[in-house]
Each structure stands twice: as structure tokens, then as C-alpha cells.
Amino acid sequence: MTVPSQPVPAGPVGIDELLERVREKLDRVDARRAFDEAAAGALLVDTRYAALRDRDGLIPGALVVERNELEWRLDPQGSHRAPEAVSHDLRVVVICNEGYASSLAALSLRQLGLHRATDLIGGFQAWRAAGLPVTAETAPSTTVDSSPNTALSAPEG
Question: How close are the terminal C-alpha atoms of the chain, in Å?
């Protein structure tokens, strides 16, 4: 599948402008809609780093994938994909802490062909503020593997 190329801006683009452009391409969801979509089969993907997950808890059922490994874990054609990455048609809702980095991550997934990827407006903090389920239990990220011969980590870079 060929992803249409985006025009290159004529000059430097600040992060606020870039974020605005990215969000125009996404059908971002609020916390309640993300909850409903997860119940209907969407994959919630928590990209927050471990200290935030330890501090604030987890969304039950969300796949935990550190941001630096997201594309390798969710590419349905990738050699390091998570078992949940079954199709380019998979509905993915990316969740960061406050809903900024997740927008950029969702666009990156779309560029891989995951055309239904989006993100959660307000991130995990909006989920929690909406009173949706959170567990204090911590879970290992999908990158943890104690066996040195079967490392699952994505290429450095």
C-alpha cells in the first residue's frame, strides 16, 4: 500500500503548527468514545513511560508499548509485531499522558497503513478525569524479555 506523500513545508514549522496539521488528519476521540470503541474491539495502546504508569496506573485491557517501539509493535507486516497487530484495518487508539505525543504517534501509524489509527484527546489524564476504569496494578511493557537470545526490542535509532 502506498502512502501519499505530504508536501514539505517551505520553511521551519513549530511544534504547535505541526500538531495542528496532524490533528486535522485524525478523527480524535474523547475518553468515553475511546472506552466504547475498546468495548467494540478497538485496541487501546498506552505509550506512557513506566514512571507515569507506575504513578497513575493502567487502563485495563490496554496494550502497553513504549513510544520508541510503537511502529515495530503495531506494523502488521513487521517481524517484531505484537500479537494484537493483526491487520491494517485495526482500529487503534493511542494514549499518552495528556494527548500531545499520541497525536504524532497516531499519524506515524497511519503512515504505516493503519488507516484507522487515532488518539485520545487529553490522554490518560482525560480518561482518569472521566472516571473510567484505571487499575493500580503495573504490567510489563511488551518489550520486556529476559532471555538474551530472544530479544524483542526494536532496532535502535
Answer: 25
